[in-house]
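User: Quick one: structure for sequence A, then sequence B.

Assistant: Sequence A:
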Amino acid sequence: MSVHSNVKKVTTHVLQEMKNAGEKITMLTGYDYTMARIIDTAGIDVILVGDSASNVMAGHETTLPITLDQMIYHASSVVRGVNRALVVVDMPFGSYQGNSKEALSSAIRIMKESGGHAVKLEGGQEILESVSRILTAGIPVMGHLGLTPQSIYKFGTYVVRAREEDEADRLIEDVKALEAAGCFAIVLEKIPADLAARVAKEVTVPIIGIGAGGGVDGQVLVVHDMLGINNEFNPRFLRKYHNLFQEMLSSFHLYIEDVRSGDFPNEGESY
């Protein structure tokens, strides 16, 4: 928006500069215009249009059911609310695995139809071909390793990843492969803090953690979780900054009361 042209936009280059200067990167998920506007106004650096929309917006048990069209819908809603933040869009399950040609066309659709700034893919060496192909089109790619929710049926559990030495070694190889391929940043989810800190030191690109300790370059949380709107989700890595579930419930109860008692609307609220 031209009105806000004086706002310094966050780019992949800015994130790299932040890592180099030792400044922590802040990232939250966003799925709609209204919430994205508030998050952006607050000064969050990166808004992730997560496939977690499948859970928090659509009520699915996993991230697998969400479609490319639905991700584009959420992403375009977010983009319209943002002036400063970098908007990263998750590529949904089935839109890039095992077929780099399809990966490229999915990524192009996301960028063209949503106006997002980058895409995020889950996985390591098995998706390198897709990552490289997307990058050839000039589309920035963020990686995602550790607990990769799209692979939930392969692992069969959401427990902490890479506790065993061989899995930790594999993770480091994957991180380095993604870095070499040209990813501008990598999310590490639910892995031991010391391993995540080691990775952040060993690679030049920013490492964003979720449940990966404080030794990384930035943090990401699901906005509905950190606001306490999802009251039944309480993993160890989550800090709840609010109990909006309770606050919203109270507001709805008051509204019901006021409508039933005839208190709302009053004279001043009528024409």
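Sequence B:
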Amino acid sequence: MNPQGELHSHLSTTGVQTITFSHPAHNSFPAHQLAGVVAALDAAATNDDTKVVLLRSGGSRTFCAGANLDELLAISDEAGAKDFFMGFANLILAMRRCPKPIVVAVQGKAIGGGVGIASAADYCLATEAASIKLSELAIAIGPFVILPALVRKMGIAAATELSIDTEWHNASWAHSKGLYQRVYPTLEALNDATETLTTKLAGYSLKASAELKKTLWHGTSHWPELLDERAGVSGRLVLTEEARTALSAFKKK
């Protein structure tokens, strides 16, 4: 695998645009790859041949480990720190503004920003191996950028539990709280279900799907400003000595 990560976007004959990201560090996201996914989503949003978007990652063990720790530790100023967290904010906003249904397939563990991607999905499928974890509070920051998406999808009680209890929560818990719509025993079963769902969605009316999505995301028009503010909070906190020490220790695990 490319040490900088890989990103592939493929449009099927049925109108399913599959965007696949991967990175050797547990599918974590460096800034350039976050920008690449945003660009791929925006391209799918305006492509008349795209009927539905499938967002997934490569490999079988980890869906997404969130922020790339090497990049986080290399940040030395507040502007750069905010820009990094805006990468996740921009990804969530791109998922929000895309008029096409976005299905996310979570084949393995999701941490931090990976949980945020799952929460911004219009429909999320997972395997039983897809445990989730928000470790941000344990490293002296917080899941501020992804919290609006988490609260919208799971409710304030579940988002609070996930944010404060920084240990793993299994796929069954995530399903019961509404993060995952369906959970499957194997990767093969997930792939089959994903193909069935996306093919079905691609056959529906684009106008009706767009109107439904607009309705489901009602009340989020302020998110561009809100997520910009939240990225600033994360950016300030990640530069503290407490956070730098915790991040360094976390990376060594």
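Residues 6-187 form a domain with the 2-enoyl-CoA Hydratase; Chain A, domain 1 fold (CATH 3.90.226.10). The chain has a mean pLDDT of 95.

User: Thanks, that's what I needed.
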